[in-house]
Write a structure and sequence with these properties.
heterodimer; A: 140 residues; alpha/beta; Immunoglobulin-like; 7-stranded mixed beta sheet; 4-stranded mixed beta sheet; 3 helices; 39% strand; globular; B: 397 residues; alpha+beta; Baculovirus p35; 4-stranded antiparallel beta sheet; 14 strands
């Protein structure tokens, strides 16, 4: 898995979704603003984009649109999180940073990129990570 | 090391010299394959071994005979097979056609297979026909890749992650699929043994024979070796796309012997065979990552196998209908405006119709081309329960 993730990190020119830091700040008058939203599509068992640029330390809402006729999931976190899910037993995810996305549907989760460490996202249904359902999260 | 192009040219030369005056086996050539897709049960105990397929073509009709054979102990297995046309018949194949062909070409076929599962409702694809052949439940479907994928999922097929792309790949060329589910319990009741195959004979009106190959890679790792035997029986010497190379060997192109034709004609459903046919045997041993094409055949003598059907070129975009809005009647006489609407289908994809002896296409190039141009398609299916490792369950007390 480490090798695969290394390759991910080495990808140059990958399409990236960027969420600006400015969008995450509170609104005028002190009213809390909803977290910024980034959308990730799944097509032919690939994440599009496969690189997310998110503000570290800020809550972000991630919408996942599954265009495939098969189920997928999106799990965000460091290598340890990815490894745990790859060998995990949970059938359905609805927690922060992990969401199940049934075929032909859209789902969302919220998550905060920790400061100072790389993160990844992937699908850990059987065979999906190995097939290439993985992406990189970098701080803005 | 011999350059692949030289090897192909050498093979071609040998074949041409030995067999024909001027063989026009066309460009790429690919292999065989049973229409089955390799699948695995949730427990991973069913493996696709080796597939064997006959694509016989006579008088505008393809007779496609493949055997669904499973090794392993799963309860239910299945496969989704792309078809180039709506079958006129799907029936149990004869008992010895594939075996007789194997004997003719000195090879004993093992098996081929896939897996599938449960059954629920909720289709988007159109069910054209359903029938049972021994322990196989066969459904012919019409629909796009997503629709067929949804149907398969709803009916308990566990689709591997590469399936959506494969389904789209084939649906771009033909939106006809055949889903076959093998019920191991029913097979056991029938006394079928593990490894025993069920031949299926599909009859389709087709301009030329066609054999899906890429579907064999479904559910397989890129480094997996896909092995298959494909036999062609055609009225005329066939032209093939893609051209033979290391992973796809042209083992034999000969006039079928009268003894072979007689034996085959006496098998179930094979009485249509004429007195003279060409026999072609292809041995496929290709890594899954490289098998991104199908076998297109021109059996008419025109030597123009379709690069689109081979999966080496994208199909032409659909013809858009002319605007349906009716313009208001002119109040003055204006010069007639002409809207260019194609009146005929797009011309067939232009391909390098190099003779086998002069082909300059490298297999690698073909593979890369296929990978670059095509989207993806067909699927293999497997039984329905989501495969997930289960850990210990600790109950709170």
């Amino acid at each position: 898995m480490t090798a695969l993730l290394d390759r991910l990190g080495a990808r140059a020119g990958a399409v990236a979704a960027v969420v600006g830091v400015g969008l995450c700040t509170g609104g005028l008058g002190g009213r809390p603003q909803p977290p910024p939203v980034v959308t990730v599509a799944i097509h032919h068992s690939r994440f599009v984009p496969d690189r997310l640029v998110l503000p570290a330390g800020r809550l972000v809402r991630i919408v996942v649109r599954n265009e495939d006729p098969i189920d997928h999931e999106l799990v965000l976190g460091d290598l340890a999180v990815q490894a745990r899910h790859e060998h995990g037993t949970d059938r359905v995810h609805h927690e922060s940073g992990a969401v199940s996305v049934p075929a032909d549907s859209t789902a969302a989760t919220t998550w905060t990129l920790p400061r100072g460490q790389p993160a990844f996202f992937g699908c850990h249904l059987p065979g999906h990570w190995a097939y290439g359902m993985q992406g990189l999260v970098v701080p803005a | 090391m011999t350059h692949p192009n030289r090897r192909i040219a050498g093979t071609a030369t040998a074949v041409a010299a030995a067999l024909l005056g001027s063989i026009t086996l066309l460009a790429l050539f690919a292999g065989p394959a049973s229409a089955c897709a390799g699948l695995v049960t949730p427990s991973g105990n069913v493996k696709l071994v080796r597939t064997s397929t006959l694509a016989a073509w006579h008088a505008g009709v393809e007779h496609y005979v493949t055997s669904f054979t499973f090794s392993g102990q799963g309860e239910q297995f299945g496969a989704i097979v792309p078809l180039p046309a709506i079958p006129t018949t799907v029936e149990r194949g004869g008992d010895w056609t594939l075996q007789r062909l194997a004997r003719e070409t000195n090879f004993q076929p093992a098996s081929g297979a896939a897996s599938a599962g449960g059954a629920v409702a909720g289709d988007s694809a159109t069910v054209i026909s359903q029938q049972k052949i021994d322990a196989l439940e066969v459904t012919v479907l019409k629909g796009g890749g997503r629709a067929v994928g949804r149907w398969a999922k709803a009916h308990g097929f566990q689709l591997t992650p590469d399936t959506p792309e494969v389904l789209d790949f084939y649906a771009a060329r033909s939106q006809i699929f055949m889903a076959a589910r093998f019920d191991a319990a029913a097979a056991k009741e029938r006394g079928q043994q593990a490894g025993e195959g069920t031949p299926v004979h599909i009859t389709m009106p087709l301009a030329n024979p066609w054999v899906p190959l890429r579907v064999l890679t479904t559910g397989r790792q890129g480094s997996d070796l896909i092995s298959a035997d494909v036999w062609l029986l055609t009225d005329k010497l066939p032209s093939l796309l893609p051209v033979p190379h290391d992973g796809v060997r042209l083992e034999r192109v000969v006039q079928a012997s009268p003894e072979l034709l007689t034996d085959l004609r006496n098998d179930k459903g094979m009485g249509w065979m004429p007195k003279s046919m060409w026999l072609t045997h292809l041995d496929i041993n290709e890594q899954a990552a490289n098998l991104r094409y199908d076998l297109a055949v021109d059996a008419t003598g025109a030597a123009r196998p379709s690069a689109v059907l081979a999966g080496l070129e994208a199909p032409p975009p659909p013809v858009r209908p002319a605007p349906t809005t009716t313009p208001p009647p002119p109040t003055t006489v204006a010069p007639a405006t002409t809207t260019e609407v194609p009146t005929t289908a797009a011309p067939p994809a232009t391909i390098a119709t190099a003779r086998l002896t002069t082909s300059n296409r490298a297999p690698e190039g073909l593979t890369a081309l296929a990978g670059a141009l095509l989207g993806a398609i067909v699927a293999t299916a497997v039984p329905g329960v989501r495969r997930r490792r289960r850990g210990r369950v600790v109950a709170a007390r």
